[in-house]
Amino acid sequence: MFSPQTQDYGKGTGNYPRCDFKLLPKKEKLPKAKAKTGAVTLIQRFGGSLNLNVHFHQLFIDGAYLLGDQGEPIDFYTSLPPTLSELDLVLGQIIKRLTKYLERQKIIVKDNDNEFQLEIPAEDSFAKLQESSVTYRFATGPSKGKKAMVLKTVPENDHTTNWGLVVKNSGFSLHAGVATKAHERDKLERICRYIARPAISEERLSINHPGDVIYKFKKPWDDGTTAIKLTQMEFMEKLVALVPRPRVHLTRYHGVLGPHYKYRKQIVPIKKESPQLAAVTGSTVEDTPPQPKAKRISWARLLKRVFNIDVTICQKCQGEVRIIAAIEDPKVIKKILEHMGLPSTAPKLAYARGPPASDQSDMFAQEFFEN
User: Fold this and answer.
1) Is the pLDDT of residue 329 over 80?
2) 278 and 251, same structural domain?
């Protein structure tokens, strides 16, 4: 899994560097026009402290397909793990291609000192929020230009990723130390869940007695920082900076996994009949027809996967729950609810209201609209 980190300059970076797709066929000495690999890219825009930190998580097929005359896959060549020198070469090419692209798009400019500068228009308030979030600072309010207050404990260095298949260069880093085997489907699912996780963990989010927002980190920083304390308006500013630009896909497929690849069905595995069912029906894996893919996941399965709530198991006897009847008559439903002592009418809708009035929120709103 390659995850080259980049900086966010307020606009999309367009086409991604393709040098990492050339590494696998080159390692196996396959012809460039007759070899193809595949990957899935998930773009994450957040860091562990609610800061804007755009980086790519890429799941690569650990090898390359040898293609036929019509572009169809005819054989697969497994690749050996990359070396540090190969990762350093790939990272150097990524930096070179990315900076050239940003220069052509006039997102960054090179000054006389051979350094890149980022020009942000004065009227682009959203870009200002993103710029401050990248540097862990605030762009508005009483704490403008300052960093968030942090909570510290005893420092520890056990969680740093400075070992293994990791290379760094000019503020960029490339990590390729995570891999799964073909049969390790549970491990692959855990990796997919990790790289597709949301920006905020509600379990580590709380509000203290004065009303400030406390966000705990998953792991302490090297200096012992365990959490940050934000006012409610500062917390809103952090969230705004994480919002992606419109019409930008955060999940993308490449190579043989691309949606327009003609022979993609030969690459993506099809769910086969279980051995137990095959023994009962007398069929084999070869003559088992492909099962139709369900378009939607059932609500019970979604509750189980997302919130770990299994509504199909009874909480008292741990037995299997089944649907006895579906009652749709409003009169019968009302009678049952009243008999059980439960409210039989829906609560009244509350009127919409604005945020709590305070001097700080008024100051924030005035400064934001002036900018």
Assistant:
1) yes
2) no
